[in-house]
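Summary for the lay section of the report: proteins are chains of building blocks that fold into shapes. Here we show the chain for SWIM-type domain-containing protein and then a coded description of the shape we predicted for it.
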Amino acid sequence: MTVRPLRDRRYVVETDGGTYVVALDAGTCTCPDHAIRGSRCKHLRRVAMEVTAGTVPAPDERVGACAVCGAETVVPFDAVGARLCDRHAFDPGTVVRDRETGKRLVVAAVTTERADAYRTDEGRTVAEYPTNADYGAHEPVVEAVYVEAIRSDQSVGDGDRYGFPASRLTGRGD
Ligand SMILES: [Zn+2]
Ligand SMILES: [Zn+2]
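The coded shape description reads as follows.
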């Protein structure tokens, strides 16, 4: 039995005996077994199993692509804007390094706005800055605060936030 997610949140289940469409949230399947007994057929159970195992996205999720590396990543079904895979995303509070200046920053937020759409206080997009020319204009902007600017009586959220294309910041030693 193989399960493939469709674009409308349903799943195609292919078996030796036929191909059926399962709607997990509605609890329906197009197989005769389900039509006659109205019970949970083996196709519904199989889809539920694969969703739990993470081999197919849940009905409220879909497969998107990481803006930095293009790797497949599960995102909310209605997600718009740029996304990052687990390897390229940052948790708020992570200390990162700016590849251009070598300075340390603390991540305040990962937005879903692209670098060529996100406007700074100066009214320019993040992508327009010459120092960001080497990073993807399609990447989501990460807002971060310079470590040196954080005073001991402040929380990170109180500091001045600057927007960076995601791949300009690195949390690893590279
Ligand atoms: Zn079925
Ligand atoms: Zn990635």
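Put simply, here is one thing we learned. The helical segments are 32-37, 42-53.
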